[in-house]
Write a structure and sequence with these properties.
single chain; alpha+beta; 2 domains; 9 strands; about 15% helix
Length: about 290
């Protein structure tokens, strides 16, 4: 509001004061005519005008020839931590469960995967008894996609001299698996002795590492919730790193003796920056 100053109030002042008074009146009048700063459009939430811009995601690390690097870069520390989901569930299915794969509601069991009747019955039995028969309780490896859920984290080390990849696990008994990139095909499961991690062959599709695995034994649970499988299990895994802090994992499960059709699951894993995998062994916690 402009102060109530009138020219007749200046009459009693000397000439110098009169000129000062008139100048003040002119400044106040000009200020009254100045336009107000623009306001936000109606309905704009306060945070829309005050929040700082989001920092761009750190770019995917690469080798000098442009190949994606799945492990730490030279001079830095880090590893892949906990998965974004607690267990293996078919993509698009909502089946709430706790961190070790126990369903909140057993009625959701038939929706977790396209089970054959015997496999569903076994899965429900394992759920009912609280996963008491879980082989990892006896320090057997958490193989199959389960190693992506095991506590302790993991690293993906690319050996470019011998065209292979090592996946090193922090949980269990510090196990590892080997993925060959030299063009070999996975063996016929009927012609090999089954192993916990199977026989894995990989190839690159642009920035995605695609891995075919077969030749598994049936002595492990390939999911921490107790999903069953047979020696006919075949996995197709896809590893990609869309940015520095994110690993994207997709898997197609094909076991015709256990499931009525192939099915998919997917999740992301966050990079733990500046740390190393903590040392731990299964026997220490028994």
């Amino acid at each position: 509001m402009i102060p109530a100053i009138h020219s007749k109030s200046c009459a009693a002042f000397p000439c110098a004061m009169l000129r000062l008074c008139r100048g003040l009146l002119a400044v106040l009048a000009l200020a009254a005519c100045e336009p107000s700063p623009p306001s936000s459009p109606p309905g704009t939430p306060p945070e829309a005008t005050s929040a700082p811009p989001e920092a761009p995601a750190r770019a995917t690390p690469r080798y000098d020839d442009g190949l994606v690097r799945f492990d730490r870069v030279p001079g830095e520390k880090g590893y892949w931590g906990q998965a974004g989901v607690s267990s293996l569930v078919e993509t698009g299915v909502e089946a709430p469960m706790n961190g070790i794969g126990l369903l909140d509601n057993l009625a959701d069991a038939p929706r977790v995967a396209p089970f054959r009747p015997w496999a569903l019955a076994l899965y429900e039995h394992r759920q009912r008894n609280g996963l008491a028969d879980d082989p990892t309780r006896f320090c057997l490896p958490p193989a199959g996609p389960r190693h992506m859920h095991a506590p302790g984290g993991f690293r993906i080390i690319q050996d470019r001299n011998f065209d292979r990849v090592y996946v090193m696990f922090g949980g269990g008994n510090r196990n590892w698996r080997v993925i060959f990139l030299d063009g070999r095909a996975p063996p016929d499961p009927a012609e090999v002795v089954g192993t916990y991690y199977g026989y894995s062959s990989g190839r690159w599709e642009d920035d995605t590492l695609v891995v075919e695995s077969s030749g598994f034994n049936a002595r492990f649970w390939f999911s921490n919730g107790g999903l069953p499988h047979t020696e006919a299990l075949h996995l197709t895994e896809r590893f990609s790193r869309p940015d520095y802090h994110t690993l994207r994992y997709e898997v197609t499960v094909d076991d015709p003796y256990t499931y009525t059709r192939p099915w998919n699951a997917e999740w992301t894993v966050e990079w733990v920056e500046g740390s190393v995998i903590p040392e731990q062994f299964c026997e220490d916690n028994r």
